[in-house]
Amino acid sequence: MDRRALVCHAGALVVDPCSANKCYDRYAKCLPSAGSAALNCSTCLAGFVHASVVGSAELICVRDGTHCQEKNPYLYPTLHRSCHDADGCHAGWTWDAALRNCVDLNECEPGSPYNRCGSVAECINIVGNHVCLCPQLQEHYGGTYTGRYRFDRGSQQCIDDTASPPCVWPQFRFGGQCVEDPCQFNPCAQNERCITAPDGSDYICACKGRRVDGVCKFSPCLTDPCPEPWTTCINNDDWRGRRCVGNLTCPLHESEWCTEPGYVRQRLDCGDGDGVDDWVCTRPSLAQRGVYLSSSDCADDHWPDADASLCPPLFNRSVCPLPSDDWCTGEGLVLEQVDCGDGDAADDWVCMHNATGQRKVLLSSNCTRTVRPAGLVVHGEKVDCGDDDGVYDWICTHPATGQRGVLLSSSDCSDSHWPYANKTLCPSRFSDAMCAQPGNWCEEAQGEVLHSLDCGDGDGVNDWVCLQANTSRRAVLLSSSTCDTALDGWPTADQSMCPPLLNGIMCPLPYNWCEETGGGVLERINCGDGDGVDDWVCTYPNTGQRKVLLSTSNCSIDYWPTADKYLCAPLFNHSMCPMPYDWWCKGDGYVLEKTDCGDGDGVDDWVCTYPATGQRKVLLSSNCTEDHWPQAETALCPLRFNQAVCPMPYNWWCTGDGYVLEKTNCGDGDGVDDWVCTYPATGQRKVLLSSNCTEDHWPQAETALCPLRFNRDGYVLEKTDCGDGDGVDDWVCTYPATGQRKVLLSSNCTEDHWPQAATALCPLRFNRSTCPMPYDWWCSDPGDVLEKLDCGDGDGVDDWVCVNPDSWMRKVLLSSNCSTDHGPAAPRSLCPPRFASAMCYWPSSECSSDGFSRQRVDCGDGDGIDDWICIQHNTSYRGVLLSSSDCQDSHWTNADKSLCTPYFKDLMCPLRYYWCDQQGEQLQRVNCGDGDGVDDWVCTNPANGQRKVLLSSSDCSEDHGPQAETALCPARFNGAVCPQPQGWCDGEGDHIEKLDCGDGDGIADWVCMNNATGQRGVLLSSSNCSLDYWPQAEKALCPNRFTGAPCPQPNWWCTGGGEHIEKLDCGDGDGVDDWVCMNNGTGQRGVLLSSSNCSLDYWPQAEKSLCPNRFNSAPCPQPYYWCTDSDYTLERVNCGDDNVGDDNDWVCIRNATNQRAVLLSSSNCTLDYADNAPISMCPTRFARLMCPLPWETWCVGDGLVREQLDCGDGDAADDWVCTRPSTSERGVLLSSDCESDHWPDAAESLCPAKFANPTGRRLLGHRRELLPLAGR
């Protein structure tokens, strides 16, 4: 160890503190303090002397008088002259040659050798000095960090030693360990604040201002304030600019404003709400006036008729300003100023014309003018209208329109009845006058033409007629009537109302008379009714129905729906018949046809048939009077009815129980089917031959009439003993073609058992015979093939097999068991020789409806045999019967593609039952673009955007509902609104809105809003719809909805103890409410500004400027853990710093040491003046308070005694006294000063109550005399 760094203290060698530290005053001499290892910087270096600074007891070392040049005045009034040091000014100041003054030295400039804050603490320059501020880590870590950092001057580091282990920033304590702060590397951009996660694992960058085009910026009013002192700066909503609004009295841009003779200029507050005076100019002779309001932009003075509301204190109860200098100037006009008695006790302007009695008035209670209607005849007429007062009256008429008015002297002259004065008001003048034309009565823009003529109504006066040229709609106002427009006949005024004009004009077209939407076709044509005038015709081609309005009629009947041909022969002679009613050929099974029946007129005719009965009717264009139902003869329409089956004479021709109706060609030579009706129970029968439909030959139609149906050749009669036990022969009749048989047993002659006499009835004949068919047509359907072969059933007898090669319907009658034929899908095992290579049977009826198609194909199932497939094209339902299967399961409706790959691979997915049938859902068939070129099923619900899709390229098992991604079907979902998740936006107070957020795709988006909390989410169609940004969707996501909306509150925001939420406009310039969180107990506060990006709430110390409308009258917010220790006292007082008078300042006093801090509401609330706040910071509280101890260990140590007493300095407050009896050293902190403790030789006069002790004085003087000897 370097022994030069050791000094003797209390008989022992200790490290010299001056070897490790230095005095802050660079010209002070560092000496060990007597009796301690602390620094003693109270002595100056050689050549330097102490100098003082006004307002502070601190002494600084400057060069002595031999090198002294006085610099006076300093720029800052808190300092006064002192000697300069080597660079011209004392410590903390520097010489400015241009200003020729000492100015503050900024120790915080980069590279300054005087900065003692190190690399961690923030250097804050103050006048003549600087302070070092550690990072505000409580806010930095999201308000969760409980420690507190202090600045250590020795190590120039920020240390948190409030708990173990102590952590040195950039480390902080979490979970009992010191962890690294990721914000130490300043990862955030300019104007952004780095906020670390509580465990140091991550960070976020919060914008201190607002993001504009993705960049964090401060408000334009902060970076570019208004240059004019009388204006207030207001940010634009988008923060790309600002505007300046005046809040001081407007400057007069023209010095001569309101200085002309007769003008009066005044300065007063017009009550416009800003509390600032305004400029007012008046011209009393004309009551004209103007005003420059300080609350406006000072650009418009509203001369000469400024509204009374602009300056009520001056303009209310004053006469109206004249609108112009010549308002009442001219021959015969007299201007008067008089109170008209309008109730406001203010004079009014009256202008009179003595010759005409005309007059006008401007009432101070309503400074508007009554303007005479345009077009009035200026000179008017003066007549006695016969109102019984014998005084002339004024009438005014407009010859061009017939409009008129009258002012009767017998009335109060207030109502001129313009422009429709009734005839009775002035019969002497109006009795022979035409009606007044109503306003907008005949509009040229609608194609209407106004006519003025005498309609011949007997009064010899012209009348008004309005005629619409393209429709002939019309109205008539007759002068002989009451002139009431409700009686003008519009739109179908009768011809008799004005024969001179309306005779020879088309009928007026009634509204909605021939609607195109219903299929009507309107035509204008001369129907040849003899007047040479066009007529209106309306036809409906789908029914032939028609109507006509003839100009020769009274236009009141149109003959709907079957206007006769003669009514409009030029058009109807070559037209089809009109159907007599809409349902003439409607109903299940009816078929309507439009064809030329060959009736010789070359025009199509209507034919209606009912195929189930052959019944028919016809409307021939050559004769539209009868339709000949139900048996229209063939001759009526040979081109259609030739080759047609006969019509049944009535519906029930063959409909009773047991009757059998057949449609078959009887072989009558015309090649057309005939009707056959049989009654098997009796053998009775009838026939309607298409070659002759007049007779049916019931009940014994001869075989010759229908030989193909009635002939029964091929029967074989035998006589044999059937073995019935009586030894007598029996009759047996067989029909080999069908195996049918019957027998008359001699033992029982009552029954023949046709057509399937049992084998047991005649075993000697029927054993080893083929089965009898149960009926003649057992195998007679079109395409059926009957075969007789041994199916291998073990009896050696042939069997009947019926097969349809087209459908592979099949059945078999086995001779070993004739009771059933196993149709229509007899199993292969019943007849292997015939059925082994047979297809499955699938009835055509199961796949024959419209939209179905059945195909016979080989699905590739390995047996080389065709299979059946059935497809419903509109749903893509499909089934398959594979010949390699048991033919039992068709897999309908969703047969897998693998069952018949060659044919199913290019099919859409089968549409599931009830898949898209919920309320509001819409089904579409579209190629989604999934690469297979096959359409897919898409189901959407426009009400909530939900959607699902069945892709043909998939296995069709998953529909991805209700939020199918856009990528699944871009051809349909691109450009579509997002689907809402299930249960989305169903919280209390939530509501859904659908609008285009302005995200650039022109598509509507979903917005979820909660008005109570401002929370919001959005599903943007331009995104992948998977994220809704709830509950704090940023404004930029949906500017069309969120601009002008309050910020969304974060979850659990402002829910701490004592906290409450307020909603108000903070005055941030956007006119939108903001959220404020207040804690009345601590003054702590946060704000979510709608003009910002809503991501930062500035908790807990939001600045006043963020919400002046709320924070201007609120106390400062306390920093975290400020004045919370038990030995501190927190008070809320009025320090008198803002002339407001409210207790809005915080004072923190340490009870034991009187150390104190203050947060002033008039400041920015960020500086509390450490532990030694000057009296001037809060004189109302500190003026009679003891001084704060300069530091906690002041007057604490070996031999030091600290006392609290009133030294008698005149302020009636206690003072601090420190003495060391062993050396008589003493100091005092006077509550009237507090700047210096005068240690170690405080003058007796500073505290006579304590220091007036002669012994003390002699001892002190004695020690001073001995000091030089000790030095030797």
Automatic annotation (TrEMBL):
Residues 104-147, 179-217 form the EGF-like domain. Disulfide bonds join C188-C205, C207-C216. Keywords: Disulfide bond, EGF-like domain. The keyword Disulfide bond applies. The keyword Kinase does not apply. One of its GO terms (molecular function) is calcium ion binding. This is EGF-like domain-containing protein. It comes from Chlamydomonas incerta.
